[in-house]
Amino acid sequence: GNSVTQMEGPVTLSEEAFLTINCTYTATGYPSLFWYVQYPGEGLQLLLKATKADDKGSNKGFEATYRKETTSFHLEKGSVQVSDSAVYFCALSDRWSGGSNYKLTFGKGTLLTVNP
Amino acid sequence: EAQVTQNPRYLITVTGKKLTVTCSQNMNHEYMSWYRQDPGLGLRQIYYSMNVEVTDKGDVPEGYKVSRKEKRNFPLILESPSPNQTSLYFCASSLARGSGQPQHFGDGTRLSIL
After folding, report:
1. How far is A93 from chain B (nearest CA, A)?
2. Are A8 and A110 in contact (CB under 8 A)?
3. Which terminus of chain A has a lower count of CB atoms within 10 Å, N or C?
4. Average pLDDT over residues B61-85
């Protein structure tokens, strides 16, 4: 079956530091890949996505590249801010997994805390 | 504003007392889904629906029911709640145009079953 493995953290950084959160996946088909962010007390929000190999998703200074050869989708940001403190989830949806269910398979989430 | 609205946001109740968590979306999305989020287990899908009157089980459907009588609404029903259903629940929706569509999530419902 499908699975997503991401570094669980917690990750604590100082403002303006470089961020990497690793994510690797296993899928039976050709998945779409996502990063979602969850701020305290809120639902998950789409941060970025990529739907085919070598695509780069980007948003709010965050980037991730779909690497089919290494089955990875690592999240990076060059300079984090205090407002980036949240839980980050890597997820996949596999278009070949069973027809009509666009189920997201999530990693367990990485708590990021950015200190001033 | 495009949104997925869940109610209630918080609920404490007792074992066996039927409850319903409502979910409504205003984006005319065909696909809707329920997840539960538990520490150490992440998010797992409970049920999903491809359109009105079309629902199916996800990975952890035991103890839950759903219905989809209108396109915008997808309530989650716990007929006889038990303590192991204490969790944080999320409703999500998207267009049904392939797995690359982003899913929109509600703010969550925290259920405590005593």
Report:
1. 5
2. yes
3. C
4. 97
Residue-level pLDDT at A30: 85
A25 near A73, Cβ under 8 Å?
yes
Residues B81, B114 contacting (CB under 8 angstroms): no
Do B107 and A104 make contact, defined as CB atoms within 8 angstroms? no
**Which residue type does A64 have?**
A
Contact B90, B34 (CB under 8 A): yes
Cα separation of B16 and A67, whole Å? 48
User: Which residues from B are below 8 Å from A34, CB to CB?
Assistant: 102
Q: Do B102 and A34 touch (CB under 8 A)?
A: yes
| Helix boundaries (H) for A1-116 | none
Q: What are phi and psi of A50, to 5 degrees?
A: -150, 140
Q: Which stretches of chain B are assigned E, i.e. beta strand?
A: 4-7, 10-13, 19-25, 31-38, 42-51, 54-57, 65-66, 76-78, 87-94, 104-105, 109-113
pLDDT tens profile A33-88: 999 999 988 889 999 999 999 999 999 999 999 999 999 999 999 999 999 999 99
3-state secondary structure of A84: helix
Q: Who's near A97: CB < 8 A, 6+ residues apart? A: A2, A27, A28, A29, A103, B99
The alpha carbon of residue A100 is apart from the nearest alpha carbon of chain B, in Å, by 7
The band of A103, judged by pLDDT with boundaries at 50, 70 and 90, is: confident
Beta bridge partners of B78: B19
DSSP single-letter state for residue B103: P
Measure the CA–CA gap between B99 and A93, rounded to whole angstroms: 5
